[in-house]
């Protein structure tokens, strides 16, 4: 800037002094420094920058000269990280003081500032192993066989396997929840069902298979009784003296009781019947046998009796004299002289007395008149002997 002169010849040939009053205006410069994550939009020129560097823009300054503005830009980058976790049933992820519980496998993200202030994306690759509670099924008792079916629960995830804890056994498929086991020894056998599911604790349950014997039962020899008699039935087995043994006779309708070892027929038994007894051991094994009670419906006269008051054979009896097919009867007994010593039209037995007096040992003559339903009649005669 200044006054500058120059002399030139003017139009009339004289010196002409020209003075330049000069003002020089100066351009200006300035700089800005910025830091941004990933991108930066410079409002100065509306440009978007994605890399660090120096960027210029020129604009008129206050005096109208160029003003060069320099952007000293630093672009910093976001960060990313990931990690993998395997957990049982659920996983608690704590980040930035916050806890989130996850129960399903998957990839989960969270964003937090990194060391330079940009987003830090953390990815959790989560695998959830589902636990299962092992259930080996119900305890069993098998009777005189060495094969049993096992029924456990199948795992929701992972795998299961059978093993022998005590006793013995051979599994058809030890990795199948529902399988069979053979080669079972007498007595108690224990088998375990174990479920393994990733990082979850191993779950184990035990089932007991008890191998027991079927009772050996004898219901006795077949019997023959008269319609008014009672048959005594007795079961004999190899477990009779064992606590917890039970008995069951059928058909119960013809018995006074059907749940004891020794039973007696009742008055309803009027025809030949087969009776079966089941003997159940404490382990639940059942053995059985049967006996036939034949019912003799013929009218039968005993040949002798011993009226001595011992409770055995004290009466002379006529079997089936009370048969419903008999309309009426009359029993008459005579001594050896032909004198009548007993008479009855409702015969229940004769005790060997006459008018309250005990008759001597001897043979006596009897005559029995029988009238049947339908009009048929008969007279039966014979001898009966009193023995002492």
Q: What's the total helix number? A: 0
What characterizes the major β-sheet?
Answer: 5 strands, mixed
Q: Can you give the mean pLDDT?
A: 93
Globally, the shape reads rod-shaped
What is the tally of beta strands? 36
Tell me the fraction of residues in β-strands, as a range. over 45%
Structural class: mainly beta
Instruction: Tell me the radius of gyration.
Output: 60 Å
Report, as a whole number of angstroms, the end-to-end distance: 178 Å
The largest sheet has its strands arranged as: 29-36-35-31-32
Question: How much helicity do the residues have?
Answer: under 10%
Low-confidence stretches: none
How would you describe the overall organization of this protein?
- The protein is mostly beta strands and 388 residues long.
- It has strands at residues 2-9, 15-22, 28-37, 40-42, 47-49, 53-60, 66-76, 79-88, 91-95, 98-102, 106-113, 119-129, 140-143, 147-151, 159-166, 170-171, 178-182, 187-196, 203-212, 217-218, 223-226, 232-234, 236-237, 246-250, 262-264, 273-280, 286-296, 300-301, 304-305, 318-319, 326-334, 340-344, 353-354, 357-358, 362-372, 377-386.
- A five-stranded mixed sheet has the order 29-36-35-31-32, with no helix packed on it.
- Strand 4 and strand 5 form a beta hairpin.
- The chain is rod-shaped, with a radius of gyration of 60 Å.
